[in-house]
Amino acid sequence: MEKTKLRLLPALIALGVTPSISEAQFLGPQQVNALPSSPADHRVQYGSGPFQFGDLRLQKTSQRHPVAVVIHGGCWKSKHGDLTADLENMSALSSALTNLGIATWNIEYRQIDNPGGGWPGTFDDVANAVDYLRVLAKSYPLDLTRIVVVGHSAGGQLGTWAAARHRLSPKSPLFSTNPLRVTGVVNLAGPGDLANFLPLESRVCGDAVITNLMGGSPSEVPERYRDGSPSNLLPLGVKQVLIVGAQDKTVPPEVVKKYGEDARNKGDDIELTIVENASHFELIAPGSIAWSKVEEAILLMLKPRKRIPQ
């Protein structure tokens, strides 16, 4: 086992998680949820529904903080047997980024097994949560000129879409007149092409999750895939960093690589990192073998840019 994995084990064991060496080769969602995290400074509703809220973390200074919008995954559905996919899966990541001086807005949203989830509710929630930063900035010192979206798995697809929605046609049901623009996206093992991920959905998620999310197949509702799949909105016009584990069986590297190639061919600024000896959940676990790559990508994207004298 790698030394970085060994550094994770004391924290896991202290919290009552005692995986064997073979089980601990790659992390799972339960282990990530058990990682230490600071409580949110504020839990804020961005809408009136029970799933329309987010956790805001920020350091106690008056200086304006760059912002990371953090979006969890979970195959676009909340219930997986005894497991729940929700924003707690990204609490450790959010805490680690906040410790670096980045305000984190870790959002919840309606998924396909929640009332109102799927098309268009899931997309509307993500859009409204991102735009709600304008409201939060009235009460908290947030720098809205430096916003990065950090999404994992299904959250990577939704986060990339959030950065792409300025490309939507005014005729789209997802269109908004003044979407909050972001600096860039760090997509952690998220599929950028929904149609390309369809052959894997049942094996990976145990269900026809994309068909349920979109309300049909690409041939049945082509306009929804045109508006909801980032691959069909290229070029996004923002920096995108794609990070995936070489051993990821959930969203295999070739899926991420294909989207990256398509985006680059359309003119987008794309950086792809494939992390050896990492699978799906190492990407959101501070201290893992993948964490330095994730941290570096986010910090570089939020680095203040020098102004050119006019």
Structure description:
It is a single chain. The chain is α/β, with parallel strands linked by helices and 310 residues long. It has one domain: Alpha/Beta hydrolase fold, catalytic domain (Rossmann fold, 3-Layer(aba) Sandwich), CATH 3.40.50. Helix content is 32%, strand content 17%. It is built from 12 helices and 10 strands. The chain has an 8-stranded mixed beta sheet, sandwiched between helices. Strands 4-5 form a two-stranded antiparallel sheet. α4 crosses α6.
CATH topology: Rossmann fold
Q: What would you report as the Rg, rounded to the nearest angstrom?
A: 18 Å
Q: Number of domains in the coordinates?
A: 1
One letter per element, helices H and strands E, the order comes to HHEEEEEHEHHEHEHHHHEHEH
Distance between the termini: 54 Å
Shape: globular
Structural class: alpha/beta
Largest sheet, in brief, is: 8 strands, mixed
Task: Give the uncertain stretches in residue-range form.
Answer: 1-24
Superfamily at the CATH H level?
Answer: Alpha/Beta hydrolase fold, catalytic domain
Number of strands: 10
Q: If you average the pLDDT, what whole number results?
A: 91
Q: Class, according to the CATH hierarchy?
A: Alpha Beta
Task: Indicate the CATH architecture.
Answer: 3-Layer(aba) Sandwich
